[in-house]
Amino acid sequence: MSDRVIVVVRAGALTTVQDLGRPGYAHLGVPRSGALDPPAAALVNRLVGNPPDAAVLETTLSGCALRPRATVTVAVGGAPGPVSVGGRPAAWGAPVVVPAGELLEVGAATAGVRGYVAVSGGIAVEPVLGSRATDLLSGLGPAPLTDGTVLPLGTPAGPPARVDGAPQPRPPAELVLRVTLGPRDDWFTAGAVRDLTTRAYRVSPASNRIGLRTEGPALERARPGELPSEGMVLGAVQVPPDGRPVVFLADHPTTGGYPVIAVVRAADLPAAAQAPPGTPVRFVPVRRR
User: Fold this and answer.
1) Is the pLDDT of residue 217 over 80?
2) Measuring CA to CA, which residue among 288, 261, 252, 264 is closest to residue 183?
3) Strands across the sheet containing 56-60
4) How far, in whole angstroms, is CA 233 from its chain's centroid?
5) How far apart are the first and last CA of the chain?
6) I want to staple 124 with a disulfide (CB 3.0 to 4.6 A). Which of 154, 223, 229, 237 is the partner?
7) Which part of the chain is the Carboxyltransferase domain (predicted)?
8) Which pLDDT band holds residue 169 (cuts at 50, 70, 90)?
């Protein structure tokens, strides 16, 4: 067996393999999946010399611990938190050499939600439909990691970046989501549309990779009944029967019957991936382009 593997010693609350995802398969009912914070995943790949489509690990809140069987270069980014190698403090947001057999410990996030761990050569699990991403909704890709999982690594593509540290945006104290109203805003009262764009919401603890759920004013319907199922897009703000908006993230369903009152700009979704429960949320309307 090749020593180009890494062993999961502590999987953490939810650690998955992610890459750029599976866009283009919605007509088959397959979500796009992929890293919830693509800029953070891309940065840690650059730091270790990987191409942008290399698979990384996405952690949730509690980090993880890994032990490589060969010497590797790693970088940890996304949600900030402590990093150590062999029990000694190591850099966050910079390339770090982990000798064979040493323990890389990624601690609990001190801010934000999702951390990213890139390893030189990338995580080389078998791709499904062209992607190595774990999709929690459809079950495609590798299962969420558990203690003892052994992950194969690819061949390093290039040298690590020559930087002491790379700047990364901090998780938001307030999540501001720019939205384009529609396509089903006419299913809601004028007061509900006003509430969405003027009232304060909070990130719900029930949020996950499928959607960011909110707590706040319930949005009142102007029409009874339900829509026939129609296509859903990344960033769609769907309103279920309880009236609280849900922002669809990477593992969202490809169709749905609840009305979509607005769609969030794609550029604002990485911040949504890093907003912990209780973070204030504002939906800011912008004109259609």
Assistant:
1) yes
2) 261
3) 16-18, 56-60, 114-119, 72-78, 96-98
4) 16
5) 54
6) 154
7) 27-289
8) confident
